[in-house]
Amino acid sequence: MDQRPIGVFDSGVGGLTTVRELKRLLPGEDIIYFGDTGRVPYGSRSRETIIKYARQDVAFLRTFDLKAIVIACGTVSTTALDLLREENPIPVLGVVEPAARAAAKATRSGVIGLIGTQATIRSGAYERVISAANPTAKVMAKACPLFVPLVENGRVEPGDIVIETVVKEYLSPLKDAGVDTLVLGCTHYPLLERVIGAFMGPDVTLINAGAEGARATCQTLRQSDALANRAAGVSRYFVSDSTADFSRLAAIFLREDVTGQVQQVEIGAEILNHRLGIRNDTP
Amino acid sequence: MDQRPIGVFDSGVGGLTTVRELKRLLPGEDIIYFGDTGRVPYGSRSRETIIKYARQDVAFLRTFDLKAIVIACGTVSTTALDLLREENPIPVLGVVEPAARAAAKATRSGVIGLIGTQATIRSGAYERVISAANPTAKVMAKACPLFVPLVENGRVEPGDIVIETVVKEYLSPLKDAGVDTLVLGCTHYPLLERVIGAFMGPDVTLINAGAEGARATCQTLRQSDALANRAAGVSRYFVSDSTADFSRLAAIFLREDVTGQVQQVEIGAEILNHRLGIRNDTP
């Protein structure tokens, strides 16, 4: 039993789809969420910048006494997870391994589609895990840079010609290649599940990376006997930009009103590194 | 005569449309450009965060000995210009006043349209200048949050159903209200000039805020006898994320190859404030 909170990190609001699943599976857990809304989006930035920001973000979360950190961000999970694991003495869980394993298991045709941000696709992280789990599987990857801004502007409804045109454009090559399993490799994408599902058709299995990450976290904590022992946990949300904007988007992603549970914090390398003794140089 | 360089600042690449006009008008000037590509976009962030970032960015530019700074960013021009002027002893020029004055002068119907980021529209800065210059003019303002990501993803061509749908959606209320002048209040928007122009029709005058800012800068420097006296100036570009991504977008915005002229720098409040003795607290 471990009553300490679980830390959950995302570059913005997308990670709330993971929080939602975590709360459903483990209602007794306390959660500390940090969304770097002052610097979102990460997915179009360089590897070096993503690593620098991720280190600062995790350093902020570690100012709390956590039992584990979930990187509920596809971009950081694919780009900086190994490094964050090396640098932190508590379990750091991502969304790549669980989602990649689920996809490797789900495919029958052996052709798996992968969509994510530019940084996620560039990293090759999914391909590595999938090919270890299923050496004959083939991965067709496609960066979808417009999905995050479209989701954040509420363009998620079937019938919206803008999102339907962009979905068709990005996903046609995957559909034509005959993928039977599609990994939604960014925690924003579950909000597009209906539009993507309708375009790909009922025979394609969608793998929600954020939800797979939440399920794997649940399993890891259970195996190490680190679940909390209480009826209802408390969630606290921290952001690096205005709390009002976050609360508005949280209502969409979490389907919950978080007003009053959100605080704004200052993320600055120098302050945190001084406090935690962590170096800020990129490798 | 003043041989010192002009500093030009933008949250990312949009300000390059201003640089392009500056170089055309004043080919002899040296230019130091800073684009905060590690934290772009600014337009959807809170006022406090925009002010904090703008101060850090201007502090970086002022590590050079400049004769003036042009805020070639609609969001920062509308949200932080007065403050930046108070805090800096050199001329700080924005895009709002010149564009608002040009619009107030151009309108015949007295109904002026204004488009920009959420922060620009929220600020009310254009309305203030327009109503001072033309008290009977009416301003119809509309935030266009999807324009920046669409432009950065190259969705600028007439015939692209995505950009045409979004343009129609955002601009229909302005068209229906009978605006005869439309201020493109974000330095990304000139790349949409053809699509916007075609939708609004030939009787609507488009005011390019970035180009108006460049023209006003030219005039200010000429009036104070501060133009440089050389045939061809040199431009240097600094960014807070990868130089390769910037060079790729610069080719679109500046229509020039800047490879080799771009350097990446670290923007951190504490380092700069220490060096320059500027306070970082938001008001």
Give a brief rundown of this model.
Two copies of one chain form a homodimer. By secondary structure, the first copy, chain A, is of the alpha/beta class. The first copy, chain A, is built from 13 helices and ten strands.
Please provide a written account of the structure:
Two copies of one chain form a homodimer. Chain A has helices at residues 16-25, 47-61, 74-79, 81-87, 96-106, 118-123, 125-133, 147-152, 161-176, 193-200, 209-223, 243-253, 269-276, and strands spanning 6-10, 31-35, 68-71, 92-93, 111-116, 138-143, 181-184, 205-208, 235-239, 262-264. The first copy, chain A, is of the alpha/beta class and 283 residues long. Chain A folds into two domains: 6-93 and 212-276, Rossmann fold (3-Layer(aba) Sandwich); 96-210, Rossmann fold (3-Layer(aba) Sandwich), CATH 3.40.50. In chain A, the strands form two sheets. In chain A, strands 4-3-1-2-9-10 form a six-stranded parallel β-sheet, with helices on both faces. In chain A, helix 10 links the parallel strand 7 and strand 8. Mean pLDDT of chain A is 93; it is low at 270-283. Chains A and B meet through helix 8, helix 9 and helix 13 of A and helix 7, helix 8 and helix 12 of B.
